[in-house]
Write a structure and sequence with these properties.
Elements (H helix, E strand, L loop, with lengths): L5 H15 L2 E3 L2 E3 L19 E10 L4 E6 L27 E9 L2 E9 L14 E8 L2 E5 L11 E9 L2 E8 L4 H4 L5 E6 L2 E6 L7 E4 L9 E8 L1
Antiparallel strand pairs: 1-2, 3-4, 3-6, 5-6, 7-8, 7-10, 9-10, 9-12, 11-12, 11-14, 13-14
Length: 231
Amino acid sequence: MSGKIYPKVLILFTVIFIFYISDVTNGSFILPNMESATVEPPICTSLNSLCGLNYRYVTNKGKTIMDMHSDQEICTCPEDTRNNCSVSEDWDNMNNSLVQRLLSGPGNQLLVKISYCQLPVPKQDCRLNDPVLVTRGRGHLMFQLVNDMMCKCDRPLMAQSSWIHGEYDYVMYGCGQPRCAKRNATVCAELTYDEGSLKTHSFCRCKRQEMCKGDLPKSEGETIPHKCVIN
């Protein structure tokens, strides 16, 4: 598939994805009732409920191609947190939100901004790369919070590691992530095949024009290092 066709396919997939995954409550994904599309959203069941999803289509160098957002919240947050759910075009408003990468391809990525009614903020400040919180789900859809935030982070939350346990996929987020170039690191991540599932651990971020790439482990207990390569 050529680089010119791929963005169109990714955008089409994104539109279909948003269309069908538009009714979400506490990590459960349901097909929406199209006849009730204009009905007011339900009340969120808890303060840490998932209440909004925004999408950003970007190049691997970080340049924004397109922003997509919902017309209304997935659920209505309680009165004291209602203004904290971001479903607007303001992508940079990361209040009670975190970002995951849903899809990637030749030169492009699809990001999702996941907004909650209220993420509990502890008093202790995070240091760079400290673990902050864990989410779980299935496949790319890992939006359910497993624990409260471990520390207060003023940096973007970055995926540090992922694993499978039982029926769920898990992702651990850290407070920011150092650049590989600043650490003179030769390995940006490691992938391990353990007990029939793939576990990843990210150490640092590559330069904008690079991606962390490598082979996949195939045998039990095998660990494969990934390195920053020009995309």
